[in-house]
C-alpha cells in the first residue's frame, strides 16, 4: 500500500511576520520568568518594562498579561505538529504510532540551554496556575488550538474519517498535555527518566493504541 503523500510546503512567513513572532516570543519568555517568580502579582506593566517595550506596544501584541505566555507554551506543541505534518510513515497504524511517539519525544527533549529554560518556565507557569485561573485558561486554549491543528494532520497520516481523526487528535494532544503537567508537578529533570519526553512516550503509547489503519477501514460504518 502506498504511503501518504507529503503535503505541499507552507509559504515562508514574511520578514515582518518573523520579527513580530520573535518579539512576541521574547516577551513571552520574560512574562513566564516573572510569573514563575511572582505568580499572579505580576502586572502587564511589569512584563513590558522587563521586556524593554512600552506598555502600549505590549497591548498591541497581547490582550492581557496572561496572554503574554501563550507563545512560549505553544513552542513545543507547534514543533511537534510541524514534524508530524512533514512525516510520511508506513501504511499501518504501528508506523503512525511510532511517528507520533518520536516527534512528541523530540519536541519535549531540550536540545540546548534556551530549550531547558523554556521547560523550566513552563513548569513554573503550571505550578502557578492553581492560583490564577486566567493563566490556566491560556494553557488550555493553547492545547485546544493544537488539537484543532492536529485533526487534518492525523487525517492525512491515518486515512481516518472526520470522527476518528478528531478522536485521534484529542488523544494525542491529551498525551502531550498530561505528560508536561505530570512532569511539572514532580521533581524530575527536563532530560531525565521522569522528564516530559519520557512521560509523553508512555502517555502516547497508552492513548494511541487504537489508531485506525491508513486504509480507513476502521472509519467505515458497519
UniProtKB/TrEMBL annotation:
Origin superkingdom: Bacteria
Domain HTH tetR-type, chain residue ranges per copy: 21-80
One Pfam family in the UniProt entry: TetR_N
Sorted UniProt keywords: DNA-binding, Transcription, Transcription regulation
Entry coiled-coil feature ranges: none
DNA-binding span(s): 43-62
Gene Ontology terms for molecular function: DNA-binding transcription factor activity; transcription cis-regulatory region binding
PANTHER family attached to this UniProt entry: HTH-TYPE TRANSCRIPTIONAL REGULATOR RUTR, MYCOFACTOCIN BIOSYNTHESIS TRANSCRIPTIONAL REGULATOR MFTR-RELATED
PROSITE patterns the UniProt entry points to: HTH_TETR_2
Protein name according to UniProt: TetR family transcriptional regulator
SUPFAM superfamilies in the record: Homeodomain-like
Keyword Cell membrane recorded: no
Organism, scientific name: Streptomyces caniferus
Amino acid at each position: 500500500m502506498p504511503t501518504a503523500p507529503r503535503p505541499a510546503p507552507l509559504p515562508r512567513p514574511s520578514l515582518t511576520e518573523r520579527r513580530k513572532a520573535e518579539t512576541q516570543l521574547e516577551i513571552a519568555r520574560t512574562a513566564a520568568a516573572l510569573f514563575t517568580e511572582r505568580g499572579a502579582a505580576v502586572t502587564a506593566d511589569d512584563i513590558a518594562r522587563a521586556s524593554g517595550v512600552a506598555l502600549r506596544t505590549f497591548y498591541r501584541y497581547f490582550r492581557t498579561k496572561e496572554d503574554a505566555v501563550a507563545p512560549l507554551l505553544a513552542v513545543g506543541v507547534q514543533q511537534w505538529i510541524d514534524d508530524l505534518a512533514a512525516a510520511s510513515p508506513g501504511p499501518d497504524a504501528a508506523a503512525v504510532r511510532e511517528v507520533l511517539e518520536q516527534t512528541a519525544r523530540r519536541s519535549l527533549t531540550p536540545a540546548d540551554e534556551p530549550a531547558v529554560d523554556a521547560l523550566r518556565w513552563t513548569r513554573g507557569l503550571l505550578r502557578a496556575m492553581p492560583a490564577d485561573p486566567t493563566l490556566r485558561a491560556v494553557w488550555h486554549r493553547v492545547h485546544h488550538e493544537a488539537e484543532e491543528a492536529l485533526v487534518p494532520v492525523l487525517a492525512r497520516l491515518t486515512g481516518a474519517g472526520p470522527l476518528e481523526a478528531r478522536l485521534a487528535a484529542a488523544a494525542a494532544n491529551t498525551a502531550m498535555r498530561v505528560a508536561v503537567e505530570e512532569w511539572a508537578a514532580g521533581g524530575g529533570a527536563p532530560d531525565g527518566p521522569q522528564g516530559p519526553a519520557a512521560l509523553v512516550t508512555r502517555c502516547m503509547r497508552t492513548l494511541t493504541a487504537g489508531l485506525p489503519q491508513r486504509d480507513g477501514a476502521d472509519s467505515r460504518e458497519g
